[in-house]
Amino acid sequence: MTQSITEKLANLTQDLLWMSEADYPWEVVSYDCSNVTPEQLLEQSNLPSNTSVETVTIERFFAPALREQSWHNEEEQATRNRFQQLFDFLNEQLNDLIVYRLKEVEIDVYVLGTVEDKTVGLKTTIVET
Predict the structure, then answer these.
(1) 3-state SS, residue 6
(2) Distance CA 129, CA 14 (A)
(3) DSSP E strands: which ranges in the chain?
């Protein structure tokens, strides 16, 4: 089941960029344990233990990408629809969803949830100055 979820996540995020001051692609991540901790993410990313870590809900994180705007053109509406499909899939397939933001300015973002005894999700980078 985990493999089918990671394959679907790869398909949903193919050529989909998270918009910030710099646009980055998504990377599918999977860990052989449930409920990966911020400390484990820092260690795996070779970041110091005193690195800034923020947690936010998946709803809060995805809110800007899911908001419909009257000025959206066809391409922007299609991108919003893709983010809605991704958001819905994450909520339907994964439990205990959480978003970790590591560092400041150039922020590593992990959108993680559990399935069976594994942690599965996505990683991207956002820039906020």
Answers:
(1) helix
(2) 27
(3) 17-18, 24-25, 27-31, 53-56, 95-102, 106-115, 118-127
Hey, how many other C-beta atoms are within 10 angstroms of the C-beta on 23?
A: 13
64 phi, psi to nearest 5 deg: -65, -35
Residue ranges in 14-126 assigned as alpha helix (H): 38-44, 58-66, 74-93
Confidence bin at 115 (pLDDT 50/70/90): very high
Residue 54 structure tokens: 């923020």
Amino acid 44: pLDDT: 86
The angle at the Cα of 58, spanning 3 to 53, to the nearest 5 degrees, equals: 95
Contact between 126 and 107 under an 8 Å Cβ cutoff? The reply is yes
Phi first, then psi, for residue 123 (nearest 5°) are -130, 140
Q: Quick check: 103 and 47 in contact, CB under 8 A?
A: yes
Q: What pLDDT digit, counting tens, does each position of 18-70 carry?
A: 988 899 999 999 999 888 889 999 998 889 999 999 999 999 999 999 988 88
Average pLDDT, the chain: 93
